[in-house]
Amino acid sequence: MMTFDLVLPTLVRACEAQPGFSDLERACAVRDLRGRVRLVVAPGARQASADVEVLVRGLEQALDAQLGRYFAAPILTTVRADEAGRLAREVLHASRPWDTASYEDPATGRQIDVAPGRWRVLERRLSKEVWLARAPSKPPWPLIPDVPSIVTFYSFKGGVGRTTALASCAWQLAREGRRVAAIDLDLEAPGLGALLGAETDRGVLDAIVDHLATGDVDIDGLVAPAQALGVEDAARVDVLPAGRLGVGYVEKLARLDFAAVGPWETDAMTPVEAALRALLRVIKKKLRPDAILLDARAGLHDLAGLSLHGLAHVDVLVTRASEQAHQGFDLTVQALGLRKPAAELRSVVVHSFAPSKSAPALRAAEREQMLQRSYESFDDYVYTAYTEDAPALEDETAAHFPWMISQDPDLERFASISAVKDKLLSEEYQALKRRIDALCRPEQPDGDDEEQE
Fold it and tell me: How many percent of the chain have pLDDT more than 70?
């Protein structure tokens, strides 16, 4: 039976086996939103038109037989002078090199990597582009002196203490006299505003939908102090809640568009990304924070991917020692490795819900397990860039090193954040904040301090 996962390898194998295929200059696999594939080819300089027609007919028969309904005929060629030829050339121009094209040899079971250079691919997706893209990450501005760092707090699974860690970091920064902007980007399950005691007339969602319609951002009515931190500290923490919950909130949420702006513009900025970048620039200019903390949506949500891969200078990855969490963490690191080279990746792993210090044996065993699993993920997807001198397992300055936050029943349920102040300012949270501070140290200016777009 043909399945989604088998389509592309089967396509490559069928094409590579076809006589005359190796003479083509280019071949592009185009996969549509339903998972069906179409083939676009560009003949080689020495291929006659009649030979190309014979090759295309043979390919169509082979692909129809092997892929069934997953194959969408006809095969497009660039040699034609009609609309089909123009479309073929446009597709090839929009596609990207497919250097990982491969298939399994049915006779031996060996993985066959095809020669690089000929194959290209174009994937049509409704969403999740930000999780699959390979273009380098570009925050709204470079991390240089006198500009706020942007720190994303992310977790693959919810309920692991992500928002609590953000609140602790914001509180510690405020106690040091620094200004903070805390932004709730968990738009589908918001809670940061309530946690920090900030109530506003409008929210982040309102700013996004207004920008979608007008191209402008206005933060009036969008910002409130973190009253739950006490008068003095609250004045230094500006909170931007998600918005007022109600049917109207859902109406606005339904209008977010994470798809790219055109059928072939997979690397183009989405409308939501453009709105969030504009919002961050206004916050930087009007609120003048020392740090901007983003509470990201959990899981593989587009907003989560955008927060991690598109907006942040520093990524705080909050996870716990469970198999579900490990699998999600592994995927998160893999996606980060595609967008952020090892030398540029600024991230810290938070091992939450760790066993208490009162159970030293259990704590040590779980720490070792978490450290090893985290190192393996980074070694597979990030540290491969190191030809030598890769980070050591116990290197506390390395991206993989997990910072432990002990499980505390008082932090799992509390009426007011002020009631657990001592817990949120514990030595473990202070150590985590010091590590985040170290990662937020500005880069040396290279003469180009313009904001990135």
Answer: 96
Give the Å distances, CA to CA, from 381 to 28, 89, 134, 185, 333. Answer: 26, 34, 13, 27, 7
- Report if pTM > 0.85: yes
Residue range 212-237: mean pLDDT, rounded: 96
Whether the ω angle into residue 442 lies within 30 degrees of 0, i.e. cis, is no
Count of the separate structural domains present in the chain: 2
Element holding 14 (H helix, E strand): helix 4-16
Provide mean pLDDT across the span 179-189. Answer: 97
- Domain hosting residue 21, numbered range: 4-124
Cα separation, 201 vs 220, whole angstroms? 9
The candidate with the shortest Cα–Cα distance to 233, out of 179, 293, 152, 164, is 179
CB atoms within 10 A of CB 344: 11
Q: Are residues 106 and 141 in the same domain?
A: no
171: nearest Cα among 241, 225, 233: 233
Residue/partner pairs of 422-427 with CB below 8 Å, 24 or more apart: 424/164, 424/167, 424/168, 424/171, 425/168, 425/171, 425/172, 425/175
- Token look-up 């859902």 returns 250
Q: How far is 232 from 177, CA to CA, in rounded Å? A: 10
CA within 13 Å, CB half, 22: 5
Note the helical H segments in 312-414. 323-339, 360-381, 409-412
Q: How many other CB atoms are found less than 10 A from the CB of residue 258?
A: 19
Query: CB–CB of 54/20 below 8 Å?
Result: yes
| 407 and 270 fall within a common domain | yes
* Other beta carbons less than 10 A from residue 84's beta carbon: 15
With H, G, I as helix, E, B as strand and everything else as coil, classify residue 36: coil
Domain match, 145 and 117 both = no
Interval 338-365 mean pLDDT:
93
Distance in angstroms (rounded) separating the CA atoms of residues 75 and 18: 14
Same domain, 319 and 375: yes
Total Cβ atoms within 10 A of residue 4: 11
Predicted local distance difference test score (pLDDT) of residue 450: 45
